[in-house]
Amino acid sequence: MAGAAQRIDRAGALPAAGGGEIVLACRGLRRDFGGFTAVKDVDLDVRHGEVHALIGPNGAGKTTVFNLLTKFLQPTAGTITLMGADITRTSPSRVARMGLVRSFQISATFPHMSVLENVRVALQRPAGLATQFWRSLSALEQLDGRAMELLREVGLDDARDLQAADLSYGRKRVLELATTLALDPKVLLLDEPMAGMGHEDVGTVAAIIRSVARTRAVLMVEHNLKVVADLCHRVTVLQRGEILAAGDYAAVSTDERVRTAYMGTDHG
Ligand SMILES: Nc1ncnc2c1ncn2[C@@H]1O[C@H](COP(=O)(O)OP(=O)(O)OP(=O)(O)O)[C@@H](O)[C@H]1O
After folding, report:
1. Is 172 left (phi over 0), alpha (psi -120 to 50) or beta?
2. Where are the domains of the chain?
3. I want to staple 255 with a disulfide (CB 3.0 to 4.6 A). Which of 65, 76, 175, 245 is the partner?
4. Across the strands, what pairs with 33?
5. Ligand 1 mean position to 59 CA, how many Å?
6. Measuring CA to CA, which residue among 17, 74, 71 is closest to residue 218?
7. pLDDT digits (tens, 9 = 90+) for 232-249
8. What was the ipTM of the complex prediction?
9. CATH level 2 (architecture), domain 1-99+190-268
10. Distance in angstroms (rounded) separating the CA atoms of residues 88 and 69
11. Residue 242 phi/psi, 5° resolution?
12. What cellular component GO annotations does this protein have (predicted)?
């Protein structure tokens, strides 16, 4: 993935926090499973132009928060707003159309299609062209320009004609990101985007996320604290479903309660 890395701004310094407008927010978010409270009193502000990390030990409630924000789970209490609109009771598909998109799983890409075809198919979703897909090849070809733009954005343009199945693990995850970007998200939710990657791929994906966040907001669950330190403008730490600390990495990583609960473990 060296080529991709060269094309993307890999400036080591963390860009100043954009301090952009709040695009996704929740207040008093809570989710009970029977008598067990998995998420309690969670307030979050996710801003345009920023990468925001959600971290915490196993079982802290990170995935549940993602499921609540994307509406795959209904909150027991609390409110969620997306670009000022109350989405607390909105369906997952409508929320996705409004611009809150969670990265696809690798299984959602088509292994026997080329890299370019995968992005073209993803591009049809927002355009509402899905029903025409099998009828009109020319309609698909019109999408090539935008698909190539997206592939260039993530550094996969040199792989356009390869089958997705033949990509390395790291590049499959990058393709997954490209297909997610095809939906033109305003807020991108990434669940451990570097999981299972080697050092070089981690650097490449971090550079892509940094670049992507300049014109969007990114909320990511990430266990790799070096990545969080290098990439994320804001960090929210969850423990047993509640917010333990929030702020920039420097503030959070020196918080005694965080060090005790999280940083002092082998994650640090
Ligand atoms: N559908 C469910 N029914 C009952 N309990 C659940 C359900 N989903 C999650 N939980 C519980 O809620 C708590 C938070 O789980 P969650 O998966 O959100 O944590 P996490 O921070 O994402 O953990 P990890 O880092 O291990 O993925 C855990 O104790 C989990 O067992």
Report:
1. alpha
2. 1-99+190-268, 109-184
3. 245
4. 36
5. 5
6. 17
7. 999 999 999 999 999 999
8. 0.97
9. 3-Layer(aba) Sandwich (3.40)
10. 8
11. -115, 155
12. plasma membrane
